Structures are given as C-alpha cells and as structure tokens.
Amino acid sequence: MAGDISTIARPYAEAVFARASESDKLDIWADQLSLLAGLVSEPSLHRVITDPLFGRAKLTDLLIEICGDNLDDEGRNLLKLLVQNDRLPVVPEMVEVYQKLKDESQQMLKVHVTSAFALKPAQEKSIADALKARFGREIIITSEKDPELIGGIHIRAGDTVIDGSVSGRLRQLSNELGI
Fold it and tell me: In the chain, what are the domain boundaries?
C-alpha cells in the first residue's frame, strides 16, 4: 500500500513543486501542504474525509473554511482537486516528496546524527562543515542521543550512512570474525 500511495502522491507533489518554482513560492507551498497534511492527519477530520456519505462539496467547503486565509487561491484549487479525485489521504506523502524536491533544488541536505552523548552546537557545526565539504550542499542537522552506541556517532544523510560508532565497529568486527 505504501508503494501505491507514493505512486499516487509523486505526480501531485511534482506538479505543485513545478508551479511553486515558476511562481517563486516554494516556502508558501510548503506551508500550505503542511497545513493540508495536518488536517488529513487529524483523527476527527480523517473520519469525515474518509466517509463516503459526506458530500465532496461539503467537505471542500469545510476544509476551505478551516484553512481560512492560510490557503491562497491556488492552494484552494489544489484542495478542490484532491477532494474531487479522492486523493486527500496521500497529502502527507505529497509533503515528503515536495520537501525532498525543494531541498534538492535549494542544494540542502537533511542529516540525522545519532551520538552516544548529546552534541554541543560547536560539534554539530563541525560535523555540518565536514559534510558540506563532502556533499557540496548546505547541511541541516538533527541530532539525538543514544547511549547504546557506546561512543562515536552514526550519520544518516539521504541514502548515505556513516557509522563511526563503537557499537557499529564492534558489530563489524563480530561479522568479520564470524561470531
């Protein structure tokens, strides 16, 4: 099912990204899509959205009223199209695809760093500078602490994983020794 959702969401996200790029409204569209994703994820609204007996026109009017001025005319048109085609449930996936396209166009890379100890801002900056040199993009770091790493860090940057943790090295050694 997840593959189906991404197959459905991708063309919508790409079309929105193309429109946002040509109108120079990348951030505005990101905000509007996030708003719609939040609405779709809201449990009480989710029941209404998935209720086949609730009229599509009433649903569109309800969602436009809830969004108010947070949606511009193009955002409202997208909402109407999504409701008409029963595609509201794929909006969260659209947001992910759109954000990846936006980050790529702005030469940004989101990196998740896991460390055995909490990272200080200076350490995050040092890691970001090193990754910027490696990937040639602006780096946005999120970090978390995981004592199970024992020491070192584990970095996930897109499809690239750099495991410099003690537990990772022990695991690698264990595999090499066949233990």
Answer: 2-103, 107-177
